[in-house]
Structures are given as C-alpha cells and as structure tokens.
Amino acid sequence: MSYGKASVEQYRKSAVNSASPLQLVVMLYDGALRFMEAAKHNIEQGELYKQNENCKKAQNIISELMSTLNMEQGGEIAQNLFSLYTFAYDKLIEGNINDNPKSISEAMEVMSQLRESWVQLEKMTAQSGASEVQHAA
User: Fold this and answer.
1) Packing angle between helix 48-67 and helix 101-136, nearest 10 degrees?
2) Mapped to the 3 state alphabet, what secondary structure does 26-63 carry?
3) What is the reported pLDDT for 1?
4) Which of 22, 43, 51, 98 has the fewest beta carbons closer than 10 A?
C-alpha cells in the first residue's frame, strides 16, 4: 500500500470511529450511492465484471441497512424503510441482470431521498443538542 492510500485509509477509519450513529447511516448511504453510480458507468462502458462488483457492493450495504432495522421497536417506520430498501435492492438486481442503467437510477433515487432524510434528522438532532447545551449553561 502506498503512502497516499495509507493516509486515505487512516482518514476513513478516523471518520468512522468519530462519527455519530446518524453520521454512520449517512456514510452507508454515501457508499451505496457511490457504488450505484459506478455500476451505471460500468453498464454504459460495457464493463460487465465491474458492473456486477459495484452492484453487489451496493446490495451489501443495503442488506446491512436492512439488517439493522428493529422491526419491533421501529414499527411502521421500520416497515416502510424495509420496503424501500427492498425496492432499491430489487432494482439493483434487475439493473445488473438486464444491464439497465435506468433500474440503477431508480434505486439511486430512492436511496438519495432516504439519505437526505437522514441528513435532515442529523441536523435537527445537532440543533436540539446545541440548544440543550445553551440552556444548561
């Protein structure tokens, strides 16, 4: 591993280790979206092996997001998230099998909207935390 790659890897580890749970979720979305974008590019370039690898990486992230849902405590929200994750996962499979970038785009649209919701939740949580600190001072 070169020095540059080692530095990037160390930075990533540091970012993950210092991230809040909400930030970690956003990082997972970012990774999934990055792999989906790469898969779309691979489809357009006819790079079937890379396309498959990137689709599988995105699917693995979505599977991880699905596995962390607490269906008992999360109630309707967890069920809705599970349905949306299932839709995105299925669209990735469809896009990969049929070499169809449109299906990948549909998965990306769902995951992008969900990511934005998590970002907004993180901002609201940070703001309420900041106001709690101000009130405590």
Assistant:
1) 40
2) HHHHHHHHHHHHHHHHHHHHCCHHHHHHHHHHHHHHHH
3) 52
4) 98
Query: Which residues of the chain register pLDDT less than 50?
Result: 11, 132-137
CB 87 within 8 A of CB 117: no
Per the structure block, which two tokens stand in for 60? 């693995």
* Its pTM surpasses 0.85: no
User: What's the pLDDT score for residue 19?
Assistant: 76
CATH topology of domain 20-136: Four Helix Bundle (Hemerythrin (Met), subunit A) (1.20.120)
Could you give the CA distance from residue 85 to residue 6 in angstroms, rounded to a whole number?
Answer: 33
Radius of gyration of the chain (CA): 17
